[in-house]
Structure formats: C-alpha cells, structure tokens
UniProtKB/TrEMBL annotation:
It comes from Natranaerobius trueperi. Homodimer. One of its GO terms (molecular function) is uridine phosphorylase activity. This is Pyrimidine-nucleoside phosphorylase. The lineage of its organism: Bacteria, Bacillati, Bacillota, Clostridia, Natranaerobiales. SMART domains: PYNP_C. InterPro entries: Glycosyl_Trfase_fam3, Glycosyl_Trfase_fam3_N_dom, Glycosyl_Trfase_fam3_N_dom_sf, Nuc_phospho_transferase, PYNP-like_C_sf, PYNP_C, Pyrmidine_PPas_bac/euk, Pyrmidine_PPase_CS.
C-alpha cells in the first residue's frame, strides 16, 4: 500500500477499505507516515466526508492504536455517559452516584477542562486527597463493590486520537462531523463499557452551534456505537446558557451535592433524571424512561443517591466531610455582585462568555499546562426569562485576585442581554437519537 495512493483515492471521493484506514492510522501513530501526508488525508476527508462504514472503521482503528480496558470481570452491564462539553456541566458528579444507587455499574473515565468548558476530574479534585489515578485492578474492584468509580483518562487509550486531533487543530479540519464523532467514540469504546449515553450540547457555549449539526453528530456517534457493538443513545440538550446556576469547580460540586439532596436547580435536575433514565434503560434496570425517572427521583428522596456520592468520595480517599460542610471545599476570599443595567427580562445569557469570564478568574485553563483555582467562579442569580429591576443583582462573582476580577467582570457583563418583553421558554432537551431514529431527525422525549 502507498500513502499517496490512498490520499488520491479519498480526494476522488472513493470509499477506503478497513485495511486502508488501518494502514493510515497505525502508520501515523507509529511515526511511519509524516504529518504532511496525513494532513492531506484529513483535508480530503473534511471536504468529501466519510461513509458510515469508513467512520466506524476509522474509530475502530483509533481504538486499536493503544490499550483497551477489559471490564469483563465487572459483573453486569457497564455504562458510561459522555458530554460534548459545556458551561456549568457538572452532570457526572450527580448522575454517576444517582444511577449507581439504583444498582447500575458506572465505570467512568473523565478528563480535565480546557478553554471555556469544565472538566469532571478538576471538579472532583475540590475534595482534598481524592485519588483519581487508580490501577486497573483497583478500578474494577471499586465498581464491583460500590457500583461506581471515576478515574482520569490515560494517554494509552486511543493515542491515535491525540495525534490526529493535534494535527486537525492546525490544519483547519476540526469541524468535520465524521472526524469529531470518531474522536469522541474512540475514547469511549476503548474504555470498555457496554452501553453509552451521549449528551450532545448545542448552542452558544457548545462545540456544535446549530441544532442541525448537533443532530448530525448525534446520529454519527450512535451509528458508530451500533456498528462496533455498543448500545448507544444520544440526547440533544441546550447550551445557549449555562447549565444550573453555578459555574466554577468547587461551586459546581456544591450544586451537584444540592441536587442529590433534592435542592438543585430544576434544569440541572431534569437533565440528570433524563440522562439517568436512559442509562437505566440501556442497563436493563427499567423497562421505560418514566420508570427510570421515578426510580431515580426515589433515590434522591430517600437519601440513597447522596449516600452513594459520599461512598464514592470516601473510597477514593477524598475528604467526604466536605459533602456536609462546604467550608472544607476550596473557598474564595472575595465576592462581587453584578447588577442589572436596566429593568426588563433576561433575553439571553451567553454560555460561552460566562465560561470565558470564569477562565479569566482562574477557574479554567487557556493551555493544558495552566494550573486552575478550584475556588473561584460565578453564581448566576438570574437566567434567561427572569424578570429583573434596575440595579438588581443578577450574578455573584467569587474571586481571589483583583486583576483577574477586572479581567472577568466586563466579559460577564456582556454575557447578559436584557429586553423590555419576555422571551419564549427555551428547550432544555430537544430530543433523542437511537439506532432506530430516522436519519437527520430527533425522536421526542418519552
């Protein structure tokens, strides 16, 4: 096989075979094929697209480029949830223990945040002493004993993805649905779970800006999962405005705990219940989504979900006392209130700008090497649709350094838009995608 022949074949919009895709991916991962040739291949795939079979084969080849986790010694069905990234998205912190309290196995590998989106591992490290680097034996043992373990992603899983993404980032080939889908799914499939629920975000704070693109990505990933033998469901949810009210690592931990107590914001609780019901359905714990929602609501009401979260933090050596005493979490020194410039209704709350304001405070990373401040962030006192009076507090900024406050304040200020008339209620969940869904369409929420 010759690399230039395969580039020409893809340039001419012909389908590559599994063996040809393997040749390109494995050759590049090992360093046998140079950047400039794979860049040409990526551009051809970007311009011409890829078939479902090609995308599935690309994903499988990326999975095969490194180690895969063998979770066969965990009894029962193993599930995972993946979000395509957003602002205030602390879903794993609540959802994991919630479904684990219903007896479902959650074997979760999570990452850190970069840019305006937050990372689950960063948030968990708000618990002093928490260990996220577990051996494979410890990881499996914790899931078997406690139904849940959350660890950091390893570079040995799907290493081809890291190399290919870095190249896409500098060659203008990031915004390709097949390449995005294969990147996400390669890591999920390498992690060894049996079933996956995908939370595909759409809106100003999401990677996918339009509903059509989010639907296309959801279908692509569900098709990959089906082609490679994993039960997969995609849920399309809104990220025009942040999820919940708290943005920032320790602040989001507090909100996740409040939700497990039944005291969290409605939008965040609703999303957790819906995603959780889908996980229970795939995990064969319930027969309908409504049964799943009812079961999870019961676990919140009777306290078992919160107990499972405490169990998770405790067995991974974190200071679980912080669940009941927020002062044991990282705490900022100062706060400042942002007030409404006029009376009216919040017509827009730009999730991306809120996320960037938090990055300026130190809550997120601008580069992978940056250290973050776990204590700082923003509390959104008013969100889209809320009525406000002039000079009424609409947000509270928690900070440690005056200069970082000065960098964040103007960005947060312009994230809010106020109009004279109320706006229409936005969808939180637009719909779902299963392998039975019609191409390009969403199924309604049951």
């Amino acid at each position: 096989m010759k690399t230039d022949d395969l580039i020409i074949k893809k340039r001419d919009n012909k389908e590559l075979t599994k063996e040809e895709i393997d040749y390109l991916v494995q050759g590049y991962t090992k360093g046998d094929i140079p950047d400039y040739q794979i860049s040409a291949f990526l551009m051809a795939a970007f311009l011409n697209g890829m078939t479902q079979v090609e995308t599935a084969n690309l994903t499988q080849s990326m999975v095969n480029s490194g180690e895969t986790l063998d979770l066969s010694s965990i009894s029962g069905i193993k599930v995972d949830k993946h979000s395509t990234g957003g602002v205030g998205d602390k879903t794993t912190l609540t959802l994991g223990p919630l479904v684990a309290s219903a007896g479902l196995n959650v074997a979760k590998m999570s990452g850190r945040g970069l840019g305006h989106t937050g990372g689950t591992i960063d948030k968990l490290e708000a618990f002093q002493g928490l260990k996220i680097d577990l051996t494979m034996d410890d990881f499996v043992d914790r899931v078997n004993k406690h139904n849940i373990a959350i660890v950091g992603q390893t570079k040995d899983l799907a290493p081809a993805d890291g190399k290919l993404y870095a190249l896409r980032d500098v060659t203008g080939t990031v915004d390709s649905i097949p390449l995005i889908a294969s990147s996400i799914m390669s890591k999920k499939l390498a992690a060894g779970t049996d079933a996956i629920v995908l939370d595909v975000k759409v809106g100003k704070g999401a990677f996918m800006q339009t509903l059509d693109d989010a639907i296309a990505l959801g279908h692509e990933m569900v098709n990959i999962g089906d082609n490679l033998g994993r039960k997969t469901i995609a849920v399309i949810s809104d990220m025009d405005q942040p999820l919940g009210k708290n943005v920032g690592n320790a602040l989001e931990v507090i909100e996740a705990i409040d939700t497990l107590k039944g005291q969290g914001p409605k939008d965040f609780e609703d999303l957790c219940l819906h995603l959780g019901a889908n996980l229970l359905l795939l995990g064969e714990k319930v027969e309908t989504l409504q049964q799943g929602r009812n079961l999870l609501q019961q676990k919140i009401t009777n306290g078992e979900a919160l107990e499972k979260f405490e169990e998770l933090i405790k067995v991974q050596n974190g200071d679980y006392r912080a669940i009941h005493d927020n002062s044991k979490l990282p705490t900022p020194k100062h706060s400042k209130t942002l007030k409404a410039s006029t009376q009216g209704y919040i017509s827009s709350l730009d999730a991306r700008k809120v996320g960037l304001a938090c990055v300026n405070l130190g809550a997120g990373r601008k580069t992978k090497e940056d250290e973050i401040d776990l204590s700082v962030g923003v509390e959104l006192l008013k969100k889209t649709g809320d009525k406000v009076k002039k000079d009424e507090p609409i947000a509270k900024i928690w900070y440690n350094e005056e200069q970082k406050l000065n960098d964040a304040l103007p960005v947060l200020d312009i994230s809010y838009e106020i109009s004279e008339q109320p706006t229409e209620d936005k969808h939180l969940i637009y719909g779902m995608i299963t392998i039975e869904s019609n191409p390009g369409e969403l199924d309604p929420i049951n």
